[in-house]
Design goal:
The protein has about 140 residues and is an alpha/beta fold. The protein is built from 5 helices and 5 strands, in the order βαββααβαβα. The two termini are about 20 Å apart.
Amino acid sequence: MSGLVFFSSRSGNTRRFVEKLDLAADRIPIDETEAFPDIRAPYVLICPTYADAHGRGAVHRQVIRFLNAPERRAPLRGVIAGGNRNFGATFAQAGGVIARKCNVPVLYRFELAGTDTDIARVKAGLETFWGQECSIPA
């Protein structure tokens, strides 16, 4: 089970990261006129950070719109955040914002389009994460 949803800006760093994972993933569209994917199964959200120097605006408006719908927010199980270490304390800040608002864990943080090590860690981590998620008795 991959259960991934991602947002990527026109720079494409997050899209490249997701492509390197080689797992099925649904994309939150950049264009506000496009329909959001119909997500019903549990998923992990992967998104970049858009914070200013004071940490404001860390979560892109499209991601906020996507998560504002209870039916799309309910299956969210965790978040993986991208960012740029040049921005110091605001690096991958979107992950923490989403985690606090949606009461889910930040599973990983990566820089720009990620490294081969990031890809290996995320793939292994997702396998473990979904294994734990699925093994919880009803």
